[in-house]
Amino acid sequence: MRNHEVTKVQPLLNADGTLREPGWSRKLCQVYDRNAIKAPKFRIKEWDYYLIISEKNNFGVALTLSDDGYIGLQSATLLDFSIPWEHTESFLTERLAAEGIAHEIDENVCKNADWENNWKKYFKPMPIGERLGSV
After folding, report:
1. Band of the pLDDT at 121, cuts 50, 70, 90?
2. What is the DSSP string of 66-132?
3. Is 53 exposed, middle or buried (0-12, 13-18, 19+ CB in 10 A)?
4. What is the model's pTM?
């Protein structure tokens, strides 16, 4: 069922809180209603993820905005496929530090033999509009 394409616009969840139609879609078909989730508010995890890639210039930007029920996280990742190199800045670090919470976030350079080209085997560009695409 994991390769099923959802094409009908419908609520994401059934009345009992389970998925109405598991699968993926090319456009927004599943209508999300937070109140339909049958879980305590602190267990609800919501996020938006945006990945913008320029194959011509071999770079990308990834943005994540999340509400994990008990803490929020915003991060930005810069990707250079020609080196390969990535760097992520997460605003969770600043929030933890402001609250005096001890923490450690480790950043390592991704070491992959051919990162510049390997991702292209698995992700294909999909046009969303005249000027925007998604991978």
Report:
1. low
2. EE-SS-EEEEEEEEETTTTEEEEEETHHHHHHHTT------------TTHHHHGGGT---EE-SSS-
3. buried
4. 0.54
